[in-house]
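Incident log entry.

Two folding requests arrived from the same account within the same minute. Monitoring flagged them as a possible duplicate submission, but the sequences differ. Recording both here for audit purposes.

Request one:
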Amino acid sequence: MKLSKRGEYAMRALIDLAIAQALGRALLPLSELSEKEQIPAAFLEQILFQLRSAGIVASVRGKHGGYCLAKPTDQIRFGEIIRLIDGPLAPIRCVSQVAYARCTCPDEAHCGLRMLMLDVRNAVAGILDKYTLADVADVTLRKLRRDKVPSPFVPPAELAALFDAPGPARPTRRARVHPVVPQGQP
């Protein structure tokens, strides 16, 4: 299995939608998703169309529209997304569960390569089918909070309040470095 750019972008966009939803923003405009992830808007729109057709995301038209998740985050597994966007997880077709094709090996039942690739497929599928969008969004949000990094999807008014808040935990917009020069030296 090789993750394509399309698959990578789909997963990054879904994680962003899950984080935004967890922070109280149900809809994200395409332009905001595109800008945050630095994905060409037209390409991201094609990906989101595919996800919408599969019932993973929904869209709302209009000035205040955007994209949102159509299913609960704990029901969206990464294996499902990769299979949808990039196809089977199997490294060779003779071990695929969804796109099986006989290989050129004369004795498929005793083929060492097939047995090895079956283990690879099972390991990859086991991990990707285990983790949900909720799991990854939760870990990401915890790490952002731990590192005191403001989330990219906090509404602008709340973000301004964070920067104007008193106290030592206040994030700074720009770090200013002032060199310490001992007295008597230039």
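Request two (distinct sequence, not a duplicate):
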Amino acid sequence: MKLLLHACCAPCLIYPLRVLREKDISIMGFFYRHNIHPYTECKKREDTLQSYAEEKELHVIYQEDYDPETFLRNVVFRESKRCTYCYHDRLKSTALLAKRGKFDSFSTTLLYSKFQNHDLIKSVGESIGKSVGIPFYYQDFREGWKEGINTSKALGMYRQQYCGCIYSEKERYLKKTV
């Protein structure tokens, strides 16, 4: 099987990449960047992913533009539903790219995080898969959470402390001061 895997960052890629390769799934990565704020954070994540992907001989497609304004326009006044929009936008971009590239399916490293809404990701992914005409590959990678953390630390990877959007960045810092 040929799979296009949305990779939000290198630390979240470690475990899914190993597990999928053990299943003899041919993987290509895709880095989506519109939701990541600020730009310096986006670059840190991208640079870390590039370094790790080279080490693991993984080809990754990197989104060339950077458009956080569109992301913000689509979530403003709907902040409590921002993750739904974000999952949809990232997965739809991945699915469309997978279809153009003649992949057999698409998936996401978001399924590795114990902080993400797996039921919602699965539902959104399957819905997009049906509408685009390419299957969403679901696997719960959370069992490898500790392995991914330990490996990323051992490799000295940059490890972000929030999901990526300006709202999650605010929540990260606000929790520490309140």
